[in-house]
Amino acid sequence: MRFKLRRNRTLAAQILLFMLLGSLLPLIILGVLNGQTARAHFNLYSESQLGLTEAQYIELYETYLKEQVNVINAELQKIENAVEDIRAVSEAVFSESDKDSVAPVQLNEIKNGLYLRFVPLEGQSFQQLYSVRDSEHIKKDLSKSMSLDPIFASEIKRNPNILAIYYIHPEGAFNYFSSTMKVIDNRDNIDWGNLSVGNLPYYQDALTIKPNENKVVWSKPYEDVASNDIYMFTASAPIYDQEGQLRGVVAADVSITDFVQNILNVQFNDEYAYAFLLGKDHRLITIQNRGQTDFARLSLNLSTSWDGIDGYTELKANGQTKMLFTKTVPSTGWMLAYVIPKEHLLSAVTKSSRELTNQTNQHLIKQNLLITLAAVVICILLSIFLWRKISRPIQSLKNAFIDVGNGNFSVSTNGSPFHEFDHLSKTFNRMSERIGELMGAQIQLNEELEGKVTERTLALSDLNEELQLRIEELIRIEGWRKKWISHISHDLKTPSTVAQGYIDAILDGKIPADQSERYLVKIEQRIQTITALVKDLNDLSLLETGQINPILIPIDADDFFEALMYKWSDPLTWRDTILVREPGQSRATIQADEHLVGRVVDNLVSNAMKYSPSQSRVVWSIRESNGFVYLVIKDEGIGIPEEAIPYIFDSFYRVDSSRNSRIPGSGLGLTIAREIMLLHGGTIEAFNNPDAGCTFIAGFPFNNVQTRS
């Protein structure tokens, strides 16, 4: 009986019992805590992600509204630029002397005291010249204004937002160009005899601009009874002659309906949101149709006036939270606003987050229950199995170790008072020696394998580096190609478009016969511009692809550069700009191609002349340093913005167009100069002077042995 009791209290039985108890209880507790912690963290994460998503949406919509304000501002700026351009031309026209006696325009009298001339144009366009008085000087002024007809037609065709553009005489006469027949006025219902331009608000707005004040004013929105009650706003500017006398007003009408169709309805097309436009006085200019009802409720729920609204804010209207985004249009001071329900914006995110939370919670609960039940069942079965089978496997394992342990083991373990573990220890001692032998062989095999893997890895690394270099080169070439195509298209399109416009105007008879020669000269100038650009492109392509091989000959640097500068020494060449040489000379001999180096010098001197004011100096000098002969050209011009200096040698790069829009050039001269200097193994650089202007330095090595292939 004692023997059986001792067998029931063996070490194996006690270990199995404590293992069962020690594994089940922590597993159950950890399962419960894990589920609660996971749910809490997931709920917190969902809330934080929802807040982050809302902030990202707000930032996205603010950015989008800013972009649309820029679009509207750009469209309005186009119209302002058109009015300013026409005003400038008009003032030049009306400042000309009448000694050549301008012939008065012929008008036909119709009823209601109106004198009219109607001219249908291409498509739906037309021209109307009309006056409420039969005056000779009014007709002459209208005749002068007809010289603006090509510009009127061009601006209407170029800008789809302009409904009509016209000249207004101070005594009630008009030269009116329109892009559509829908503005033909109902002349029979208007008392033309009592018409006064003083009653036109946009005419009075234009008179607030003083002579020599270059700006355009926008009228408040209004319904024009003379144009079938079209709701519109007008940009206008006065015309003064050289004596400061008012000669009329030039104006451009913009249909608010068309403006909404072209801008708001295109850019803001969410069916649950709408956009609207407020004037400087915060009165409604226009609104999308779907937002008219909601806008009234939104205005009533404002705690303050529209003056207090700026950027992003939230408003309550009709039981909903509205997200209101506003931005001011710089050119007019108008306010563009966009309204979207907050629930609609975040509904998809909130719904998906809620569904994901519920599904995750259910999944965690099911998972924890299944894991706990499975662990309990496994532990119970394992305990029973080990309880009943542990002695038999140990005995089998002992016999297996004895059979395997016929080899020589060098590692030994101490014996144990327990019979089973004593046998296991002896078996392990024999087995460890065998494993040592096997491990030695395995290590040797691993070292051989690692050597082969290292060789293959190095080979693959070299191939990968070569492939990466090829990919980067292809990307660079593709970027270069796209940039060139874009620049070439732009620089060829501009002169060709201008020339085509003059040709079309001549063919359509819009240019008087006595002025045709002047416009043909302009066309020739544009064609010469295209020819020069194509030649520069061809030369640059040959230089960059290595198809031009310089003919290098020994040249005395001082005499060579002195001869090149001689042809630029005439002060009448460039607006009395004087070319001066500073003291200093070089007796070094350089290896150079006379033609190519001459082109570099011409490009640098030409740039200095073009960007220098009249009566200024362009100073050049020669110096030697560190095995190089340096040609230094310094001007007193407008200089180069510091941020533009790293890019001035790039193809087609020209500094801010507002600074040099009147200065001709293709943007390739400095690029060609850089390529020629690289062919000669030389350098070229530029920097701004401390006082005014900039300095270009071209360096030529004494012994030009290595050149770029």
TrEMBL record:
Keyword terms: ATP-binding, Cell membrane, Kinase, Membrane, Nucleotide-binding, Phosphoprotein, Transferase, Transmembrane, Transmembrane helix, Two-component regulatory system
EC number: 2.7.13.3
Signal peptide, first to last residue: none
Cellular component terms (Gene Ontology): plasma membrane
InterPro entries according to UniProt: BphY/WalK/GraS-like, dCache_1, HAMP_dom, HATPase_C_sf, HATPase_dom, His_kinase_dom, HisK_dim/P_dom, HisK_dim/P_sf
Reaction catalyzed: ATP + protein L-histidine = ADP + protein N-phospho-L-histidine
Highest taxon in the source lineage: Bacteria
Protein name: histidine kinase
